[in-house]
Amino acid sequence: MSASRRLIVADMFSLVIFSFFVNGSIELLSGLTFAQMLQSRVTAIPVNMVIARPYGLFRDAIMRFGGAENGGFLRKTGLDITSYILFQVPVYTLILLSAGVATDAIMTAVAGQMVGFVLAARPYGLWLQFCRTRFTKVAVAA
């Protein structure tokens, strides 16, 4: 398998696994039963697989533009937060729109998710880089 295909697989794997454990934990803490959480996470797999590589490429571009290779923890964290919010907010909004959620409810939901996006951004960025390194044996800007 080519290195570019391994990166695609790494991006998909990292998002599916991260989403399963992080979002699944949030759903359980929010009161969903284990069966409901499992159904939700299984349903999310196709969406995660579709957006994983575009997000990985988007994050790479933000990291390059922001000079992550020459930056410390704070710069990399800020760039991860920036890329995660700029990418995930429109995706989340489109998902809510497609579910028929009213505009005012979407605005409330997105505002509520912002804290989660900020908290998840850097851990996901580190997990993504870890997976990419394991799948390709090549480090990409963290």
UniProtKB/TrEMBL annotation:
<dbReference type="GO" id="GO:0034639">
    <property type="term" value="F:L-amino acid efflux transmembrane transporter activity"/>
</dbReference>
<keyword id="KW-0029">Amino-acid transport</keyword>
<keyword id="KW-0813">Transport</keyword>
<keyword id="KW-0472">Membrane</keyword>
<keyword id="KW-1003">Cell membrane</keyword>
<dbReference type="InterPro" id="IPR010574">
    <property type="entry name" value="Ala_export_AlaE"/>
</dbReference>
<feature type="transmembrane region" description="Helical">
    <location>
        <begin position="79"/>
        <end position="99"/>
    </location>
</feature>
<dbReference type="GO" id="GO:0016020">
    <property type="term" value="C:membrane"/>
</dbReference>
<dbReference type="Pfam" id="PF06610">
    <property type="entry name" value="AlaE"/>
</dbReference>
<feature type="transmembrane region" description="Helical">
    <location>
        <begin position="7"/>
        <end position="26"/>
    </location>
</feature>
<keyword id="KW-0812">Transmembrane</keyword>
<keyword id="KW-0997">Cell inner membrane</keyword>
<protein>
    <submittedName>
        <fullName>L-alanine exporter AlaE</fullName>
    </submittedName>
</protein>
<keyword id="KW-1133">Transmembrane helix</keyword>
